[in-house]
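Holo prediction. Input below; ligand is pseudouridine-5'-monophosphate.
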Amino acid sequence: MSRFFAPLKLKRHFHHLKISDEVRSALLGKQPVVALESTIITHGLPFPQNLEMATLVESQIRNEGAIPATIAFIDGLPTVGLHFSEIERLATTATTKAINKVSRRDVAYTMANKLLGGTTISSTMLLSHMAGIDVFATGGLGGVHRGAETTMDISADLDELGRTPVAVVCAGPKAILDIEKTMEYLETKGCMVATLGSPGTNVPGFYFRDSGVPSPYNFENFSQAAQIINAGHQLGLQSGYLMCVPPPEGIALDESWVKGIIDSATIKANKLGIRGKKLTPFLLGEISRETQGVSVKSNVDFVLNNARAGAQIAIEVSKLSR
Ligand code: PSU
Ligand code: MN
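Structure of the complex:
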């Protein structure tokens, strides 16, 4: 059902993607598929934790009964469903920095110049939609940066959520951001936002369970999440869905400890003049250093937790669209 409304012209682009045999046959057989991004491998986590995470998240999705599709640019080729050797190449090349961080604006350049590229949430959504994948799981969302009223630094993730009908399952916007402004911007762009939990549960703020910012909507189980996505698909709505999953008590970080670290990292970035696509990786690196790797461990745990939710949502969506 969902593909019925996809614009016909996408069919042409489908042939320019390299889709693995496993993912292709899962999609043709209407089996649940969960897309995964690769910027978190190339720019979000250090080696070897990036490789560990990328492997664990795929097995997590398989264990839940869905098919994982990690997405990246391999020598310029938009590739959906990476093989282990390709994931390994991304993870190890990340340390040499010879790899592009690809949001929507970087896509054409990366292809034309045959670059190796990690896909952010924005370009992963774009390629997922072209391939016909409805659900995508990751760690934390990009958003409106603090001080955006002067820098205008607003992640391309948000505009993509306004224009591409893919559901992103994550632990909320990162706490390094201005979460209130991020929610305002998503409303303007027309992105549906819902948080797992009883009515009134706030949006989580990756690394914390509760950002203090209200969630426009809530869902209490994965079937409810799938019904929202399915309703949008049936109408042919071309905007995205943000499904927030608060990290469980045991894996969320202590707010009073990490807040100070985030504040000093932000001040340091300003002092050093770090802007644009370098800012998020810089902040994540600083937090990892200052927490002695604790933030990296929770980042991995969040991705795994979201992958479980993403797989369950994909399973429910596939039941509805059969
Ligand atoms: N979440 C993480 N680590 C990351 C990212 C998200 O825990 O590295 C990446 C995602 O790929 C997201 C990107 O799309 O950061 C946003 O970057 P920017 O703020 O430059 O738009
Ligand atoms: Mn930015």
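Confidence is low (pLDDT under 50) at residues 1-11. That is the main takeaway for now.
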